[in-house]
# Entry
Amino acid sequence: MAAGNSSRLGQNKQLLKYKGETLIKRCIDICRKAKNNQIILILGHEYEKMLDQIHTKDLTLLLNPEWENGLSSSIAVGILWAKAKKLKGVYIVLPDQIHLESDLLISLQKTVYENPNQLICSRYKESYGPPSYFPARFFDEILNTAKGNGAKAMLDRYKAERIFIDFPLGMLDVDTPDDLKLLTS
# Structure
């Protein structure tokens, strides 16, 4: 998911550099290293600039024309595409989680393989969220609640069916000017 305009930050965070590469390129490379079967990249705001930063040959690119409506609108674009392709589930991965590494995605994939019909998400120190996995049986419900925060609402609603993978530093992402310090520390 890389469609938003990073309004709280004041600049396109996907194009910020971390460890010598843009956040969007870094995230895609991590997904490739984890050998995700299919990488779907959802773009919106300044998508042309992002396309200049990445190799797209092995990616499926989707454009979110309603990117101004927030992350849930990008999730809806991805879910609609996944439904049309009759996928068994979707992973949600965000480029601004600077501590994301391929090992975490490999662990997530292993957990999905062992529990293909369960909601699976990352557990941070005090919260939870992406990277996460949503099986197809939840697609319609996510779409019906997508106006707000469909994916998070699903994770909240189905607590008994949720499985966690540990990602203690997952809550460290780049959303505000103060967060820019994370990129240099």
Notes: The chain has one domain: 13-183. The first helix runs from residue 23 to 33.
